[in-house]
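Hi Y.,

Following your request, here is the sequence exactly as I used it, all 969 residues.
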Amino acid sequence: MGGRLALVVGSECGALGELGFTGELATGLYESLKATGGWQAATDADGPLLNPTAAQLSSAVGAAFAAAARQQATLLIGFIGHGTATSAEDFFLLGHDSPSMPDSHTAFHLTQEIRERLNRSALDGLVVLVDACETEQGLFGAARRWPELLARAAGRMELLVAAGDGPAYAGCFTRTMLSTFASGLPLRGENLLPSDLVDPIATVCTRQQPEHLSFTSGTVTVSEGGDPGLWLVPNIARRRDAVTDRPAAGFVDQLTSRLLLTAAVRETLDDIIEAGGNRLRGVIGPPGVGKSTLLAMLIRPSLVDTLPISPEYITAAIFLTVNSSVDAVAAELSAQLSARVPGFAAAARTARELDEHNGTAHDVFDIEVRHPLARLAKDGRRVTVIVDGLNHPEVGTRQLLIDVFADLTRSDDLRHVRIILGIRQGMGIEDAPALAHMHRIVVSEPVAEDIAATVESARDSRMVLDEREWTAWTDVLLAETPSTRGDSDSVTAGWLMARLLTEIPGAVADQVMAQDVDLDGVVALRIGAALQVAGQATAGTIGALLGVLAAAGVGPALPIELLDAAMAWMGHQTKIARLRDLTVGLGSLITRSRPGTVREAVGVTHAALLAGLRAECRRLGVELEDGHRAIIAAIVDNGATSATTYARGAAVRHYLAFGNSAAAFDFLEQLQTPRAADNRDLWSAWLPSFTAVMGADHRDTLRVRHRLANSRGRSGDINTAIEELENLGRDQARVLGDQDIDTLTTRLHTADWRGHTGRLERAVAELERLVIDYIRVCGADHPWTLRVRNSLAYWRSERGSLRRAITEFEQIIDDQSKILGTADPETLRTRHDLARSRAMAGEIHRALAEFEQLLTDLNRMLGRDHAQTVRTRNSIARWLREDGETARAIAEYESLLTDQIRIFGPDHPDTLYTRNCLAACHGEAGDITGAIAEYEQLLADQERILGPDNAHTQLTRSNLDYWRAQSGR
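Below is the corresponding structure, written out as C-alpha cells. Let me know if you'd prefer a different format.
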C-alpha cells in the first residue's frame, strides 16, 4: 500500500490556437517525475495522456483517483495546455474537443471535480500542477475562490498553477519547473515542494504569474511550504549535504525553515567555525534557543550568505533521540562516512573482517567508526562530525556516547577527527570529566525583538496588537525561570515559542500575549487550532495520536506503520493517509523524517513540548502509559525491518514505562550479540533506566547488573567483573536472601571468574560451599546443581587435582545420563572434560578412546559440523601429537583443516590455529622446510587478517623463528 502515482496531461484544444509544445513538455515532466521523484503511472498507460477529449480527460482523472484510493497513494495531476476561466470565475481544463466557451459537460471543471473526488477517495495527499494558457487574468479570480470552493474537502492538497496572457510564453512554467528539477535550489530543503517553484517561475516567466495554495482538510495551511510529504522530486542542490537521503534530512528541513539570521546567530556561527582547531567543540545553551538550527546551518551553509564554508565542511551529522543507542549511532555514522569519505567503506569492511577473525575484543562503535577512521588518518583529510541532542538518549547510553566522543577527540591516531556536540545546558552534561577538553560556545536566549519580528513576519496583516506590545510580552516571558514543578522540560524556549505562535490564529495569538500564557499554554492553543481545523469529532483520535507520539518521544523515530498499528490498538482504526492529515495539521509540534514515503517516521519536535503535550493528552482522556502499551502491541504484531530497528532502541523504554520490567529484561536478552563488548555496552546503557524506574533493589535491576558484570568478564575486564559480582552478591543476599537462586548464581559466576584469573584455591573453596547450598536449595538432581558440580570438577583439574576431578566427572556423567539423558549437551560436555582430565593425568590412550567414542556420538547426535564435534576432533589431534603419534596427528589436522575451511572459512581464528598446529607437526616429523613454508604463508595471512601486533600473529612469528633456527637459516 501507499506509493506515489502521477497522471500528466498535455492537451491541445482544437477550438483554440495550436500551442505546439504540450506533448513535448508533458512527456518531459512525466519522465522527470518518474525517473527522479519515484512517481509511477496512475493509469494503465505508462506515459503522459496527450490530446484527450473532455470525456477521456475526465475518465483518466477518475481512474487515477480510483487507483490512488485503492493503494492509499499520493496522487499528482499535471496539466499542460489550454484552460479558461468563465466570467463566474469557474476554471476549466480543456480537452481536444472542448469548445472555447465550455461548461462542466464539455470540459473539466477543476475545483468542482477535485473537491468531489477528494471527498470520495482515500488519497494520501494530492498535488495539482496546472500550466494553462489563454486565460489572461481569469485564473487568478478562480484561484481566489478556491479556498471557499474547496472548503470541507477531505485530505491534503498542494495546488501550483500559472496563467499566461497568450500562447507566446511557450510553456515557460513547465520548462522552468524541469530546469529547476535539473539544477535544484540551494536555499530549499531535501525535496522540492510545489511552493518552492513559485520564485523560479516568477523570475523566469515574466508573462506568467504562479499561484500556490496548500490545503489540509479544506483549510489553507499556515505552515510555510505546505505539506513536506507532498514533494515532487529530490532537490539535487542538497546532494552535497551530510544528511542527504538520511533520516535526519526532514528534521533539518524543519529546523532551517523560516530562518531569521540575526547578528547574534551569525556571530555564533562564526565562533563555531573559528574554533575549528579544537578537536571537540560544544554548542551549549538552554532549550529552544536554536542550538540545533545553528548546527543545521553548518550542514547547509548555502542558507547563510556569510558562512565561509562548503557543504563538505560537515562530513556527517547525527541528531540524537530518546531511542538512540550506541549501535544505531555507529551504524548511521558509518553509513554517512562511507558515502562521503573516500576509502572509509573499504576500511570499515576490513575492520569488520578483523573483528570476525579476532573474536569479541572490540565493540560495534570501534568496528564501524573508530577503527576505519584511524586507518584513514594518514590521508590528511579532516573529518568533522556533528552530534546534536546529547541530552536525549537514556542516561546509560548518554554516558557511553560521551566516552565514545571523548575518545575520538583525544586519541593520537584520530587527530584528523573533529566533533561538534549540541548540548542542553543545565543537565550537567557539559561538566562531565570526559569532556573537560571541550571548547565551549554558549548560545544565548534570543532577544524579544527577534521573536516578535519572527511572529510579525509570519502573521503579517493579521496582527491586532502592535509590535511593541508583542516585544514587551516576549521580553517578560524570556525573563521567566523554569517552573518549580520538577519538570525539566518546562522552560521558556524562545524560538520554539515563536514558531508555534506563527501557527495559531491571529486573534488567539493576541489572547496569548494578553493573558501571559506560557509555552505549555501555547502548546494547548496549537492543539486547539488543529482540532478546530480537523473538527471536534476527531478529538479522541488526535488525543490518541498525541499520546502515542508523546510516548515515542523527541525526534522523528517512530515508523509511521507502527504509529498506524498503535492507533488501532488504542481503538482508532485510521488509514496512514489520515494520520498524515492529522500530523500535518499539528504543524511544528511534530517532526517527520522522509515524509510522504513508506520509510516515514514521526515524533515530537522538541523536549520542551513534552510537558504541554502530556497535559493535553490527559485533558483529552489519554494516559501516556496507554501510548507506551500501544507501541509495544504494535511492535509485537509487526515484523517489518523498520519496526525491528525501532524496537531495538525503544522497546525496553516502553516496557519500563508501564512497569513490565520482566519483558524489558527479556527483550534485552534477545538483543545480545556474539560480541561480548557489545553486550557489555547494552546492559550498561540500560542499567540506569532500570534503576530509575524499578528501583535499585528490584529483582530485574539486580539481574541487569548480573548480565553486565558477566559481559565485562567475557569482554576481557575480568577483575571489574569479579568486583561487580561481589557487590551484587552482597546486595542480593540483603534483598533476596542468601539462599535465593539468583544470589547463588552470582556466587557461581564469581567463583568461575576467579578461576580464570588463576586464583584457583579460592575458586575451588567457593564452589565446594556452593555445591552444598545448591543441593539444599535445588536438590541433588537439579540441572543447576549438576552444573555447579561440573564447574567444581573443572577447576579442580585446572588446579592439578586431576584424580579427584576424574572421579567427580565420572559421577557427574552418571547422574547427568540418568537425569538429563546421554544426548544432552551438558552430558556431552562433561564427557569431553573427563577425557581431557584423563589426558592431562597421563592416561592419554584411555583419553583418546573416550574422545573417539564421544566423537562417534557427537556425529550421530549433533552432526559433523557442530562446534562441539569440531572441538572434539581438535582435542583428538592434539593428544595424538602429545602422545608422539605425529603421523596420525597430521592426518587428523589435515582432515580437520579441510572441514574448518568449509564450515568457518579460511580466515577464521580456529582455521588459522589448526594451520599453526599442522605446521608444527610437520616440523616435528622432520619436514622442517615444509614447516617453514607453512609458517611463512600463515604469518602473511595472519598479518593481513589479524594485524601484525596480534598475539596469535606474534606466536606464529616466534614459531617461524624457531624452525628457521632449527634449519640453520
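Residues 134-138, 460-467, 476-491 have pLDDT under 50 and may be disordered.

Thanks again,
Q.
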